[in-house]
């Protein structure tokens, strides 16, 4: 999978480098050479002087270069319902917001996706993910709108095509008019995979099968969704073990806890990742480790909704793949993943392991290689290694915010959110000096504000 010798090269040098490879190799002053959409070499000191087809040399003095951040859980549409139900737990928050979410349409979904993607991309995310599960009748091509926004932004993207078929009349939380039928959800999901999923090494768009959660999805949709994903050879995603209320719900409805329920429906495996996984006992963690089921850890959202502290150190010790997630911006209004590096470290230190829970390098691994593992793309991205895709970030470390911290990785994780001087995805620069090169941030701000007001007006009249 090496880059062609005729590929145009970009040389980045004079920078600190955290490769996040298997050995956590770091260079106090090193170089990275990009050839086309691949990383050609990473090493200490200056890059070779005799390289051919060098179209650009970047003097990255004062910077730390890391793999691009990988977001493993998000709900883009929530960008236009930020700041609502701010003092609610998960179930009450869902009950408060589902009637509004159930009225989204294609223009709203597109604008919200632009807002969510822009905020992440300008903060160092190179691989994004969206779990979209609200498909109101007559709302248009929501999946297509989201995928179009990601393509225009220039980020690598996984759409987790969600679904719900358990409405209020069946004991679920969402309004009946916001859910799909079993057959309709399966058919629409399969159509989305067939139209948009790319299984190639350097794919920019992939699709996963993603029924929403136990309290909004029937057992049959879970079971047949897993069968569909494996027939189509794509990944599976859902919410799991987020709150004590969910655990109680599963015991009352299914006679077992969430992990046992997921296993009974085919939802444990190395092709599965679940969001949150806050309330996991030792046997749950052992089951995830045995099956290599992944976890999207969303520390800010878990705190915002008072869900609890996930046992991330125990999961990592057991061998569970763990990445970081922003989660929807109605429960993490900042919408940024780079702040989750710090929040994951701090919040986990409030748990049983205290100061030994996570350190700076483990937090960075969660946000990069761990996320790539969870999305099934660790062979392609998540670390800086020759042959991998050219997805990387240059963080500026010589400003007032970080210059007195000697260790750049500590500065990145413990310090204030670091400025992004440049972000590359697939060898293409999409951010320069903290601003997007692929989109007009001011125009996106205006359109998201307009769509948020439009949605609020429609919901108020309903």
Automatic annotation (TrEMBL):
Q: Which InterPro entries match?
A: Amidohydro-rel, Metal-dep_hydrolase_composite, Metal_Hydrolase, MTA/SAH_deaminase
Transmembrane regions listed in the UniProt entry: none
Annotated signal sequence is none
Q: Which UniProt keywords apply?
A: Hydrolase
Q: Which residues form the Amidohydrolase-related domain?
A: 64-428
Q: Does the keyword Iron apply?
A: no
- Keyword Isomerase assigned: no
Q: Which NCBIfam families match?
A: PRK08203.1
Q: What is this protein called?
A: Hydroxydechloroatrazine ethylaminohydrolase
**Which organism does this sequence originate in?**
Streptomyces ambofaciens
The organism that produces this protein has a lineage beginning with:
Bacteria, Bacillati, Actinomycetota, Actinomycetes, Kitasatosporales
């Amino acid at each position: 999978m090496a880059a062609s010798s005729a590929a145009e090269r970009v040389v980045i040098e004079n920078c600190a480098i955290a490769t996040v490879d298997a050995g956590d190799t770091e260079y106090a002053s090193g170089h990275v050479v990009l050839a086309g959409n691949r990383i050609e070499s990473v090493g200490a000191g200056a890059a070779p002087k005799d390289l051919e087809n060098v179209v650009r040399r970047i003097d990255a003095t004062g910077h730390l270069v890391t793999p691009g951040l990988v977001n493993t859980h998000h709900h883009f549409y929530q960008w236009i319902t930020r700041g609502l139900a701010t003092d609610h737990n998960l179930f009450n928050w869902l009950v408060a917001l589902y009637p509004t979410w159930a009225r989204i349409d294609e223009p709203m979904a597109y604008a919200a996706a632009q807002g969510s993607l822009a905020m992440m991309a300008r903060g160092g995310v190179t691989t994004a993910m969206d779990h979209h599960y609200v498909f109101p009748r007559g709302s248009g091509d929501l999946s297509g709108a989201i995928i179009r926004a990601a393509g225009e932004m220039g980020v690598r993207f996984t759409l987790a095509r969600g679904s719900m078929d358990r409405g209020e009349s069946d004991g679920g939380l969402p309004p009946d008019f916001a859910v799909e039928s079993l057959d309709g959800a399966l058919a629409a999901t399969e159509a989305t995979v067939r139209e948009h999923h790319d299984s190639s090494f350097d794919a920019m768009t992939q699709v996963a099968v993603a029924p929403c959660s136990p309290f909004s999805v029937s057992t049959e949709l879970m079971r047949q969704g897993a069968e569909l994903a494996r027939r189509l050879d794509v990944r599976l995603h859902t919410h799991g073990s987020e709150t004590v209320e969910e655990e109680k719900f599963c015991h009352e409805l299914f006679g077992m806890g969430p992990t046992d329920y997921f296993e009974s429906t085919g939802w444990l495996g190395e092709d599965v990742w679940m969001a949150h996984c806050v309330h996991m006992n030792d046997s749950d963690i052992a089951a995830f480790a045995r099956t290599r089921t992944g976890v999207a850890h969303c520390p800010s959202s878990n705190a915002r909704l008072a869900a609890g502290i996930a046992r991330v150190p125990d999961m990592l010790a057991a061998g569970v793949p763990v990445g970081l997630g922003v989660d929807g911006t109605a429960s993490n209004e900042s919408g940024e993943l780079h702040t989750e590096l710090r929040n994951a470290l701090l919040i986990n230190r409030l748990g049983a392991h205290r100061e030994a829970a996570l350190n700076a390098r483990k937090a960075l691994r969660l946000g990069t290689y761990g996320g790539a593992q969870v999305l099934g793309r660790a062979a392609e991205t998540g670390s800086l290694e020759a042959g991998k895709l050219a997805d990387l970030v240059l963080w500026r470390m010589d400003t007032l915010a970080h210059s007195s911290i000697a260790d750049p990785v500590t500065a990145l994780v413990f310090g204030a959110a670091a400025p992004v001087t440049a972000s590359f995805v697939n060898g293409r620069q999409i951010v320069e000096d903290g601003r997007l090169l692929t989109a007009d941030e001011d125009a996106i701000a205006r359109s998201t504000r307009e769509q948020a007001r439009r949605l609020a007006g429609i919901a108020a009249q309903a």
